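Minimal example, chain plus zinc ion.
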Amino acid sequence: MEPKELWTGLLDLVYPTRCAGCDALDPHAFCGACRKELEPVRDIVCQRCGQPRVDWETPAGHCAACRHPRAFDQLRGAYVYSGPLRQAIGALKFRRRIAAARALAELLAEAVAKAEHLSLADLPLASVDLVCPVPLYPKRQRARGFNQATLLAEPLARALGVPSDPGLIKRIRDTRPQPGLSGDDRERNVAGAFSVVEGQHPIRGRRILVIDDVVTTGATASQCAAVLRQAGAAGVWVLALARAARPTEGMPPSA
Ligand SMILES: [Zn+2]
Ligand SMILES: [Zn+2]
């Protein structure tokens, strides 16, 4: 552990409630200022992948990412990946600020509780049988010490009253990090990177909810859904805590 991480870890012990977005001392998971900046996803341009509408001139239904085949029934993000949410996810993943995991799980639970007002309303949350996280490659998970998607999936599964199986999908190939790759490169990078491990929970005939921390184009989520479908899943939906709002690539520039 780096000295800075140790220091932050000690701060977490002494002051268990610092804002996950800006590190300010605050009794809440996110301070008032950061909370105001959180953007729940309400309007989307794509019914399939739930891409947030960031540009009001974009007609609904046009989605560059979903020109690629998508194996999930639907994908939805709870919040736009920006500002304090982006900071908190970065702190968890890259500075191992474990306390942020609780704040992020609370944020996800909050979005699920008011799903009817958000784009999450399209997910059949009340009727899924099983929850599982998007896995990390084992070597990457050992280096990080945890899978952030598992830390989100487990409390959510408890709230939904269904089991969570962190080992249901396995990453069988180490892939390059998706950020920085173009849409087509993202598809190629994760093709064939996953398989399923059927043990504890059968997949055939089950309705499965896959959880991830951040989704950008949905390429990774779709590969996870594809292996679940091949194993006989009756339906696969994806819920991401954060949904990156992409520029509307492939769209003609508006006048
Ligand atoms: Zn804050
Ligand atoms: Zn789409």
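Residues 92 and 98 are 6 Å apart (CA to CA). Helices lie at 3-14, 32-37, 83-94, 99-113, 138-144, 148-160, 183-190, 219-230.
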